[in-house]
Amino acid sequence: MPALRILMVAAEMAPFAQEGGLGDSVLGLSQALSRIGHDVRVVLPGYSSIDASRHSLRHCLSMDVPMGILGSLPCGVLQGRAPGSGVTVYFVRYDPYYARSGLYGHGGDGYPDNDRRFVLLCRAALELTGALGLEPDVVHVHDWHAAAVPVFLDTLYRKDAASRNPASLLTIHNMQQQGVFDKGLMDVLDIGWEHFHFRDLEFFDRVNLLKGGIYHATLLNTVSPSYAAEIRQREFAHGIEGAIRDREADLSGILNGADYAEWNPETDPRIAANYSERDRAGKGLCKRDLQRTLGLPETGPGVPLLGVVSRLVGQKGIDLIAGAAHRIFGLDAQLVVLGAGEPWAETFFRTLARDHPDRFACRIGYDGTLAHKVMAGSDFFVMPSRFEPCGLTQMYAMRYGTPPVARATGGLADTVEDFDETTRTGTGFLFDGATERALLDALGRATRAFRGRPDAMDALIRNAMARRFTWASAAERYEGLYAEAGRRRENEGR
Ligand code: ADP
Q1: Is domain 5-257+472-492 in CATH 3.40.50.2000, yes or no?
Q2: CA separation, residue 31 to residues 102, 110, 233, 252 (Å)
């Protein structure tokens, strides 16, 4: 395939600015695409939390970015390079918007001007493209923060028929956040009020930026095939299932990759002992180390340790774990939870740890080292998500020989294969219903295998450890989508 010029726009990219899986995706994919010869550039907000000297960023240019009724905003652009790659990263600096303590908000509330903050990112990315003469073949945007880019490409930045217009791809990492704002934003977007209608940006008399992106992008994708199918339904699409159905012929799903340089039990410096598929002796030491670290009693070989590393939110089915906790202890298992999130869940797990110190331990907060220890030291990884666009933790857990017990939804259904004891195939235990009963049934299957069927358990762990989800194979799939988007752009002028 000929080398493409790919411009990405996103709100996060590791290691510069990150709050969740989005930052890992943008880094992993751009590195993999650059490795196979494409010219990849990424535009991010110049958040003040990004340390310019640590990342060797230098001034690239200054420009005035038109923002409709707000007039032009004077922005600076810094330039740097993503680690271990040829990926150029541009940071749009405008301190009144980006010099804040958080990326999106403070104390759980989004900043009230997030509409302007991210529309500026989108408009600046296109102004920058013009100023540097970049002429991308494809503009690849991520989530609602960048979804105004395809809208602009289709309107204000559309060139006449004789010129080449770039194709655009919108990747939806999470459908729950859509960027819904007061309709006055139309005057900042400045694309004309004719776009404020049902099959465009309008959503219950407000502006929905993700919906606009869905209607204007050349192609769309989500981060797993199952999630792409699920978001045609209301419960997964959070109200914009109509827009998804209108564009379903242009929607596909591509699984994210995992970073196996960071998540590898053979080399991981953060766990008590390294181990491999061939020699798993170290995993037992990791279990004891995890128990010691969290103050749980060390147990005999028949007591499985169940691990959770997660945002403590409804999406992740944390309420199901909380509701089933006492019955989980009844399975003669230990449970550990590492996570932060909704206040009720943090309080609930703290109290549970106080009341059941022999069965349960938790660490409320974000702790990168402990996340590795939980992956390595647990016997099963518990993930009862209500919806899961892709999910990374189940991939890491498999690599660490910790079979997931997971709900069969979205990326979990696509990455975890239910274990079949007769054929000895499968990498974890899947269940369907988002209920405590279904979770407990699956945990029952897992703990019975753990206790009574060492051969089956051994096969399960081997299968799990052998599974790989690489960015290289994701990048190949994205290449295919870019090529398809380019053809569509030429044929339909979309
Ligand atoms: P999401 O992006 O929806 O939160 P993912 O499974 O895609 O879920 O990615 C979550 C990432 O965040 C994983 O790398 C996981 O290890 C990490 N993580 C989540 N919570 C914590 C925590 N409390 N401490 C350390 N790492 C965490």
Answers
A1: yes
A2: 26, 30, 33, 22
* Helix (H) or strand (E) segment spanning residue 142: strand 138-142
Q: How confident is the model at residue 179 (pLDDT cuts 50, 70, 90)?
A: very high
Q: Domain 281-469: what homologous superfamily?
A: Glycogen Phosphorylase B; (3.40.50.2000)
- CA neighbours within 13 Å on the CB side: how many for 231? 31
Domain boundaries, the chain: 5-257+472-492, 281-469
3-state secondary structure of 129: helix
Q: What's the token pair of residue 287?
A: 């279990």
Strand, helix or coil for residue 405: strand
Topology alike, domains 5-257+472-492 and 281-469: yes
Instruction: Tell me the per-residue pLDDT of 437-465, one tens digit each, with 9 for 90 and over.
Output: 999 999 999 999 999 999 999 999 999 99
Rounded to the nearest angstrom, the distance between the alpha carbon of 386 and the centre of ligand 1 is 16
Give distance in angstroms: CA of 271 to centre of ligand 1: 17
* Index of the ligand 1 atom closest to the CA of residue 389: 3
Distance CA 77, CA 67 (A): 17
Query: From ligand 1's centre to the CA of 155, what distance in Å?
Result: 37
